[in-house]
Automatic annotation (TrEMBL):
InterPro entries hit by this protein: CS_dom, HSP20-like_chaperone, NudC_fam
GO molecular function terms attached to this record: unfolded protein binding
PROSITE patterns: CS (PS51203)
Keywords: Cytoplasm
CDD domains recorded: p23_NUDC_like
Name the UniProt record assigns to this protein: Nuclear movement protein nudC
Biased composition annotated in UniProt, kind: Basic and acidic residues: 11-27
Length: 191
């Protein structure tokens, strides 16, 4: 279904269509030999192995665009081309309680949702992802500064006070007036 066709549906038809899609996706994802979750910056993959498995029993290979994981001498549990590129040096794997493998992949592009882990596996609809609320501390310095400025300006507007840009202009005007006391600004309109 194209986005235009979807937009032409009534709200009830959209709700039904969305529910059908979520059910289909859940069924396809449940059939995979692993479970996976993602944030904008990372992908986490987990799969069970026989109880008592040791790290030396595993063969795990993580490359920029490929991955394979499994037990020595057995078929791979996970093998193929990754949906998108990863940062190899920041990606890791662990064996938890000798029965669960956890693979952590750091995305190369931290502003993009993945449709699937491996390109040959079923895709999810990334437009329907509802990300968890992030904390300001999760943001890089520049983005955090912009968000904090927007929050301050919004708060100032709600209280009927000047925004940060307006405060900067007022401060510049005060400095200029201090440097030029001979000028009269009493009737000046500053925009």
């Amino acid at each position: 279904m194209t986005p235009e066709e979807y937009d032409s549906l009534s709200s009830e038809e959209r709700r039904v269509k969305d529910q059908e899609e979520r059910t289909r996706e859940a069924t396809e994802q449940a059939a995979l030999p692993y479970k996976w979750t993602q944030t904008l910056g990372e992908v986490d993959i987990a799969f069970p192995v026989p109880k008592g498995t040791k790290g030396k029993d595993l063969i795990i290979m993580i490359q920029k665009k490929k991955i394979s994981a499994g037990l020595k001498g057995k078929d791979k549990i996970l093998e193929g081309e990754l949906c998108k590129e990863i940062k190899i040096d920041d990606s890791t794997w662990t064996l938890e309680d000798n029965e669960n493998v956890h693979i952590h992949l750091e995305k190369a592009n931290t502003q993009q949702w993945w449709e699937n882990v491996l390109t040959h596996h079923p895709k999810i609809d990334t437009t329907k992802i509802e990300p968890a609320n992030s904390k300001l501390s999760d943001l890089d310095g520049e983005t955090r500064g912009m968000v904090e400025k927007m929050m301050f300006d919004n708060q100032q507007k709600q209280m009927g006070k000047p925004t940060s840009d307006e405060l900067k202009k007022m401060e510049a005007l005060k400095k200029f007036q201090g440097a030029h006391p001979e000028l009269d600004f009493s009737n000046a309109k500053i925009s």
